[in-house]
From TrEMBL:
Residues annotated as signal peptide: 1-21
Annotated source species: Thalassotalea algicola
Keyword Ribonucleoprotein: no
Pfam families on file: SnoaL_2
Superkingdom of the source species: Bacteria
Protein name per its UniProtKB record: SnoaL-like domain-containing protein
Keywords: Signal
Signal recorded as keyword: yes
Ranges of residues in domain SnoaL-like: 33-139
Amino acid sequence: MKSILIVLLSLYMLMSSSGHAQQLSANVEQLAQQYFTLYTKREDFDSFMAFYDDNVVLEDIVYGNHIADKKALRRFFNWTDPKFSMISEHNLVLEKMIVDRYEVVATGYFPVFNYDDKPLGPWRFIIHLTFNEQGKIIHQVDWINYTPRSQFLGGDNLNKLIN
């Protein structure tokens, strides 16, 4: 009888934790959708920044940037830069998003835009976000294929694969 009770209790705990994990992933997926919707529109910078924890870390792998807090991240994104202007209706196009508990991996591209009156892009991206239990982004890793390559790096321009 005691062993049956232990088995039943173990099954209950396993089912409860599984339900919690599914709920957590659903919440993170909803937060990520809201985040990318704001990022796409590029209109409300304060609401966009509200997704980030004060101690967020952002790593831009291609550029080699390492941003260590929310104030530095605000300066890094710099949405008020007068040299930047959108050509497309959207700042980014989200093609795919995978959510696993606190982790989100998104792929897509930044459409062509103007910077300092010069067209740049489109730029393909992979963005990896990690959320904390409070629903704030605590870590972001960006892989962005910056072009024109001559201004940024050597190598092939894989952005030409965007239709």
